[in-house]
Amino acid sequence: MRSAILLRAAVPQIERSVHDLKDEIDVMSRLRADITNQRQRIGNTALRLDGEHKRLKELWDRKSTLQYAAIAETEASEQRVRQLAGEAQDLRELMQRLEEERQRRILEAAEKAAAEKAARDADLAARKAAHEAEIAAQKAARDAEIAAKKADKERKEREMAEARAAREAELRAQAQAREAEIAAQKAARVLENATREAAEAKPMVSEKPIASVQGKMVFPAKGSVVERFGQPNEVGVINKGISIATRKGAQIIATYDGQVAFAGPFRGYGLLLIIDHGEGYHTLLAGMARIDANVGQKLTAGEPVGIMGEDEAKPALYIELRRQGQPVNPLPWLTAQKSKGHG
């Protein structure tokens, strides 16, 4: 009888304990589900980071390709100019071929700019993906913090340990996402530099049109004008330019801003330098013993481009100015110096 009374008194307490235990089991189940979801988000973030690493490698590979292409393009341009010089039968044909080559380079530069824009668009997409990965990592970190607080409230040491482990994993994922974003920004700067270098390789156009500087172009060298435009020379051929008697070893300079279209030997001229000033204007300089400029090089007025010979008894620099391939008298374009030059 006493046992029955004691049992009857203990039943409510046992029921309360069972109810409390059931609540604790439910809490633990929810925590486990939260942790499972957290692990899944960590896995998704890791996959995104792996994708970003692959995109970064592609960006570096593209940068290397651009560098090698720029070097190859420079070498090909010089080879092409030498080939044109060998194929041209006269100076008029050379000028025509050089103009066609310049138009081809302009078209190639436009195509390259389009390719570079596509590369920049790809880089922007990579940075956007890195940013999305960062946001996902931050959200996962917040979820991990909530899970940790919930585990602390229920005083479940094991769940707290798992939550802390998840939190540490999220912090690592967040750090990796930041590193991916930094690397993407660095790759963007590399692409920007490559784009700027490619833009610098485009044909130069002076900010001040050459037509506005008639009478203000500098003489390429000091000396007296010994042969004039339109007059017959010593062998009876009509001069298409002028000749200046210079001192031995004289420094030769560019008459105006432009870009070197040709530099090298050409039939009947010896060493010939052709400078493209834009708007169809070209300066031709011949008679030098050495040319200090390369095809594609950008020049400014007064910049050294060559040296006269030391061994010639009477060194003379020959100058032509051509407009749309036709010779014009260069003297009215040069600064008036009473037959003397400034160069």
From TrEMBL:
Membrane-traversing stretches: none
Annotated coiled-coil segments of the chain: 74-111, 137-197
One GO biological process term: proteolysis
Molecular function per GO: metal ion binding; metalloendopeptidase activity
Residue stretches making up the M23ase beta-sheet core domain: 239-330
Name the record gives this protein: Peptidase M23B
Keywords associated with the record: Coiled coil, Hydrolase, Metal-binding, Metalloprotease, Protease, Zinc
Database matches in InterPro entries: Cell_wall_metabolism_enzyme (IPR050570), Dup_hybrid_motif (IPR011055), M23ase_b-sheet_dom (IPR016047)
Cofactor names: Zn(2+)
Keyword check for Coiled coil: yes
Species of provenance: Magnetospirillum gryphiswaldense
